[in-house]
Write a structure and sequence with these properties.
The protein is α/β, with parallel strands linked by helices. It has two domains: 2-62, no CATH class; 84-281, TIM Barrel (Alpha-Beta Barrel), CATH 3.20.20.80. It has helices at 2-34, 37-62, 66-72, 98-103, 129-138, 155-165, 187-205, 215-221, 275-281, 289-296, and strands spanning 85-89, 105-106, 109-120, 124-125, 142-148, 176-178, 210-214, 232-235, 250-257, 266-271. β7, α8 and β8 (232-235) form a beta-alpha-beta unit. The chain is elongated.
């Protein structure tokens, strides 16, 4: 009986000792971090700085690229309020299965137009251009052909190369100039060479060419009054709305789209307007049909 009492007493002492040890550990940690006013100021400041940088990282680094990461993993978000979709292709898309592309949907809408890389510099022709250009027409797409501008070659030479290789017809989009780099040109030299290309090609087709460029490039180099008369195709990726506040016709909103018939990624675009407006933009449809009917009416003869 005495032995049992001693054992029970020892257990009670051991339990109190363990409880005391636990409290002491917490107390020691509390004393280590906040035991003095200096430490309290230090750790409070440390945690505030961590929270501040976490906010900065989330707001300015993670959040703007949230759409990019979603797109990379196959979850492409489409701009709201637009129903006319298109794609931008070149030899990078390989051999395209056009029948599948013709039946493909983007945001539950059919593909309406196809932009096709044609030329670059003064001698390069995209190896798949002729086939892509032919197939796009055969499968009923509104098609466009673009030239990639090389700042190391004069605008005149590049325009002549484009006109030699590309033969647009009725129902095609106007000629397209893709401008993405300034090279060793000055601001003034770049604008002159670009305007030379636009002027020469416009004289051939009697229609203002379309200019493709990135948002920042547009705002930096192509915002002079001389460019206001040209339709713009703006590239601005992974955002809910295009950042350009001026007038624009096309918006390339991602470069990691996926559609049936094309292996790998493809650039996706939308048109800022109705299907009537898009057809009205094409070569041979630049006059209002109502005006044409009025011109042919008996009273006007």
């Amino acid at each position: 009986m005495v032995r049992k009492k001693i054992t029970a007493k020892r257990k009670r002492i051991s339990y109190r000792h363990q409880k005391h040890r636990k409290v002491s550990l917490g107390a020691r940690l509390k004393k280590f971090f906040f035991g003095t006013s200096y430490r309290r100021v230090f750790w409070t400041s440390f945690f505030c700085i961590v929270l501040f940088y976490a906010f900065i990282f989330s707001t300015y680094f993670a959040s703007p690229y949230r759409s990019l990461w979603r797109a990379i993993y196959g979850d492409v978000s489409y701009p709201a309020g637009f129903s006319i979709h298109g794609i931008d292709i070149s030899h990078h898309q390989g051999n395209i299965k056009w029948e599948k592309v013709a039946n493909a949907k983007i945001d539950d809408e059919p593909i309406a137009f196809v932009m096709i890389k044609a030329t670059e510099g003064k001698s390069h022709l995209d190896e798949n251009f002729n086939d892509n250009f032919y197939q796009a027409r055969e499968y009923g797409f509104i098609r466009g052909a673009y030239h990639y501008f090389s700042p190391s070659v004069s605008g005149k030479e590049q325009a002549q190369h484009y006109l030699h290789q590309v033969h647009l017809g009725e129902g095609d989009l106007p000629p397209i100039l893709d401008i993405e780099e300034i090279g060793n040109l000055t601001f003034t030299q770049l604008q002159k060479q670009v305007l030379d290309w636009l002027r020469i090609v416009e004289e051939q087709y009697d229609v203002a060419p379309i200019i493709y460029t990135g948002l920042k490039f547009k705002e930096t180099y192509l915002s002079s009054i001389e460019f206001d008369r040209y339709p713009f195709w703006i590239a601005h990726y992974y955002v809910k709305e295009v950042g350009y506040k001026g007038e624009w016709r096309f918006w390339q909103h991602t470069d990691v789209g996926h559609i049936d018939g094309i292996r790998g990624s493809v650039d996706l675009d939308i048109y800022n307007g109705s299907m009537y407006d898009l057809r009205h933009l094409t070569i041979g449809h630049d006059e209002d049909p109502l005006l044409q009917e009025d011109a042919l009416a008996p009273d006007s003869l």
